[in-house]
Every structure is written in C-alpha cells, then in structure tokens.
Write a structure and sequence with these properties.
This protein has helices at 8-22, 30-57, 62-79, 86-105, 112-123, 128-139. The protein is mostly helical. It has one domain. It is elongated and about 55 Å long. The N and C termini lie far apart (38 Å).
C-alpha cells in the first residue's frame, strides 16, 4: 500500500471495520476491533519513536523530529496528485525540509544528517558501513 501513498495500517483497520459491518458484526466483535485499533496506534507510535531516535543520533533535536513529521505529512498531501510515487517522494522531501526548517528556526546550524537520520529511521535503510560513509561525506 505504501507505494501508492496509502497508510497501510489504517487501510487494514478500515478493511476490518468494513468486513465486520458487512457481516453484521457476527464474526468480528468489538474486542477484535479494539485490539486492531490499539495495535495500529502502537505501530504508528513505534514508527515515530524510531524516527526521533535516528534524528537525535545524527545530531538533530526533538524539534527537528517534530518538524520532520509535520513536513512528511505536508509533503504527502502535496505529492498526492502525482500518480504512484508522488506521496512517497513528497513524504521524504517534506520530512527533510521540515527537519531543516525546524533546526534553522532554533538559530542553530542545520545539518544534512538530520533529514537523513529521520528518513533512515522511517525506512530502516542502510547498514553500519553505509552510515559511516554518509557521515564522513557530510563531515567534509
């Protein structure tokens, strides 16, 4: 679902609700629905926490993390008209721009690693060697 710009967790929750309503809530009860919503919320919170963790790891502040989340949401909305990859590209660019603007608003040097750390946390990309290479490239 992500390549099409749809939030997979919440699409699954809506699909469960639709299935439950279609079956007059006989096969899917309120406990199952509540557990699904709670697990989806935990998944979203975990994704945000990982993003903040990587932003801090590369020198960003929590303010940059919030800027990245807001920028990612705005970027996703702006990229919606572009078919297939618009939301994905918009989310990455928005996260980077949001983190950079948040860092600049603190009158502090904005580092390229802030957006990269947020994106790495969101995607889970790269191994240790790749990060070391990127860190060395940013430092020069």
């Amino acid at each position: 679902m992500v390549p099409f710009g749809l939030p997979g967790l919440w699409v699954m929750v809506l699909a469960l609700l639709g299935y439950a309503a279609f079956g007059a809530f006989e096969r899917v009860g309120p406990v199952t629905i509540a557990a699904t919503v709670v697990l989806a919320g935990v998944g979203e919170a975990l994704e945000a926490w990982i993003g903040f963790r990587y932003a801090r790891r590369y020198g960003g502040s929590s303010r940059a993390g919030w800027g990245a989340i807001a920028g990612g949401l705005v970027g996703t909305a702006v990229g919606t008209p572009v078919p297939v990859v618009g939301n994905l590209v918009g989310a990455f660019l928005g996260a980077f721009v949001g983190a950079a603007l948040a860092e600049h608003s603190r009158a502090r040097d904005a580092r390229m690693s802030v957006g990269g750390g947020r994106d790495e946390g969101r995607v889970g990309a790269g191994d240790r060697r790749d990060r070391d290479v990127r860190r060395a490239a940013v430092a020069t």
